Structure formats: structure tokens, C-alpha cells
Amino acid sequence: MDTSQTYTLLLTVSFALAAGLVGCFALMKRMLLASDVLSHLALPGLGLAFLFKLNPLAGGAATLLLGTLLVWQLQKKTGLAADASIGVVFAVALALGAALTPSEDLVEALFGTFPKLSLFGFLVGLAAVAAVILAILAFKNRLTLAVFSPELAAATGLNVNRLELYYLLVFSVTIIIGLRFMGALLSSALIIMPAATARQVTNGLSRFIVVSMAVSSVSVLAGSLINAFVVRSSTAAPAIVVVSALCFGLSLLKKAG
Amino acid sequence: MSTPFLSVRNLRIAFGTRVVIRDLSFEVASGDCLSVIGPNGAGKTVLLRAMLHLIPYEGEIHWSADARLGYVPQRVAAEKNQPLSVRDLLAAKAAVLKLPQGELAGVFREIGLAAELFDSGLAALSGGQLQKVLVAFALLGQPNVLLFDEPTASLDELSEERIYELIHSLKQEKGITVILVSHDLSVVYRYADQVLCLSKGRVCMGPPREILTPEMLEQLYAAPPKYYRHSETHRES
User: What is the DSSP letter of B116?
Assistant: First the structure.
């Protein structure tokens, strides 16, 4: 494994920590599936970037953030539930993305790749991961009140609407960090599956968060190694998702027993 | 005359074209228990939410400068899916309000819940236990006024009795002002100092023995005849 691959592996593992943490609150907010769909909002941007030979990350980030703001506005202005507004925006995004992305790049856009990272890219990625983790930890108590009861949170003096926006933004940044490794279709898998696994085996908030982050990073580490030495695909995302699915399967056993 | 603890002047609350509360004025003295009664849809919950500044309104709702509000909602759907313990919930509010963590154990003792429930999941609590946890939640930050929205709506009689005893003792021992929306008129009669009745277009206020008379109640809760017709057609079909 050369230096740039080591950077990529380290960044993927730290991304996994952020994804596991963000996923805990996505599960509590009942927006896990919505989060899956949200990541697809990056697809039109990836397509445009591939089409015009721009940085795919910048393109994906642009449409993802734009789509997130659109979803938030739709929710606020129309009173639609999160799943309804995300569903509408998602269908448009996927169609646009499929139409725009050159067919030879479509697989990479959808399922990710194992990019060679420069030291600079690595450090920027790490800074983004640190920002996500610090933001969620800073908002942890406010988010807890808001998921328990938005009304009580508001009565405690919180601006629940703004909190929702902050969370969606942090969420989007998490997906953007994972976009290159995991692709538009699978970058949300690490937000969904570790949190679902952790929920099976824990009842209190702190343990829930710790287990989710642990499952997420173990999945990435094991999946990446399996891919590097066994599967040898251009992307480690499928192997990573399969490992996290195994963890989920094990958690079901524990719950049953 | 001392200034009132809460003064509401010319309050008007509307959602779109539907006016729920119009031209409502009343005052509450510090340490009093005001009970709000009225049929469903009369705007009792809306009034509470306006007092908490959770919804927009016209007119004036003025709390005394030292008022610290605590709110106990009708019920909170404690989802089975939330991995939150009682401690998680109370600690989150304590952290948001920057209260010393020692206050957690204090409010827990105050509401008379067993200490071992502190670390149990919210989903595992009974209805009565959850409602007490909500009272504990409201008590964090040492409020001097508590607003209750039908705090016993989903409880059996015994749990209901305990919640009202708790409310009463908080009022007696700590001098907390209480604003209580309740359907239970015997409770209102026992505990309220003032009763505010809301009904479509009509408002009355006074001490329980003046308001809770058969004539007043009939006017307040009298159901229009069309409801009866509806149930008859329902039975025939």
C-alpha cells in the first residue's frame, strides 16, 4: 500500500466515525431512509462535473447542498413531511443525474472509487470530518431535546427550525466526504447501517453513539482490506456495505437471544 | 394593588381565516392556580402555546420580569425507537440551560420517582411514570410557573390522582404559580383559585364556586343538536 492509498484508507475510516455519529441522530429523527435518498442529490452535480471535466466532489457538493436547502424550504413552506419533500426532489435529482453523467463514468458516480489522495486532499478531508464530529457533539443536547419533542425543545428556548437546517447541512457535508469512496448510491449506507445495528444492542444515548461509530469504522477497515486483497474491485464500497450488513445481522442475533 | 404575575390583554389568535381566540383579557396573581376549561376546539391548548410564545398572536401576553416558565404537555409519544434514557433527556435540558448536573437528582427526588428508573429507557416507562418524568423535565431550571396541558389525559385514575397531588404540593410548598388546562371538573373545583372558561365566542372567569354551577356548565359545554343527528345516522347505516 503506497502513501496515497494509506491517506485514502485513513480518511475513509475517519469518515466512518463521522457517519456513525451522524447516523445516530438520523435514526432518532426517523430520517434514515430519507438520508439514503438525500445522498442521491449529489448525482446531477457529479454528472455535470464528469461532463465538463471538473472536480466531481465540487459538483456533487454543489447540487447536494442546493437540494438540501430545497428540501428544507419545501418542508417549511408547504408543511410536507421530510420524506415527502425529499422524495420529490430525489426523483428529479436521480433522473437529471442519469441523463447528465457520461455512461463510462456512471458506475464511479453511483458506487464510488478508491481515489489517490494528495496530502492536501487528505488534510482537507480530515478537517471536514473533524468539523462534522465537533458540530454534532456541540448540538448533541439540543438535537436530543428536538427528537424527543420539538414542542418541548421550543418551550426550552431552542429554535427548532434552525437546528433542523444545521443538522441537514452537517448531514450533507458527511455525505460529501464519503462521496468519492462510496458513490452517490452507497455513501449513505454508513450513516444508516451502523446506527441501525447499534440500536439493536443498546438503550442509552452514549452507548448507542459509541457502538454506532465503532461498527461504522470496523466495517470500513474490514471492507477496505477485503477489497484490497480479495475482491480487487475499483471501489471498496460494496465490500464495506456487505461487512456492515453482516454486523447488522449479528446484532439481530444478539437482540433475539 | 400589586402588579399581576401574568397579564393578558386583548389577545387574538387566528390560523388563516379561522379565529380561535378573540379579545381575551385576564390576569393571574403570583402563586395562584388558574384552571382553563372548555369544550374541545375552544382554544385551550392554543392559549397555552401562545403563553409560551410558541405561536404568533396579536395583543399582549405579559409575564412578570422574574417569571421562569415550565411546560408539561398533554402527552409526548415516547417512541419505542428512541435510545434515550430518563437521564439522557433530563441531562440534555440541563446542559442546554447550563444548569449544574446536581439539579437532575434534585428534581427526580421531588417528583417521587424511584431512583432506579433514572437509567431506564423512556420507552419502558408506564404512562404515569412518563408523565412524572415530564414534570421533572419542566422543573429543571427552577421555574416559578408551571403550565399543564391536560396532564392526565392518558392516565388511569390512580396515576391521575398522584399527578394532581404532585401539582398541588408544588404549588403549596414552593409557591409555584400553576396554569392548568383540565377536563376534570372535580379536580378544578378542588385545586383552582380561578377558573377561565373558553367556549366559542364566550369567555368567563371567576372562582370555582361561581363558575362551576350547573347553569354555567350547561352553557359552556352544551352540544349543538347536529352532533346527535350525526350519531343516529351512523347507527342506522
Answer: G
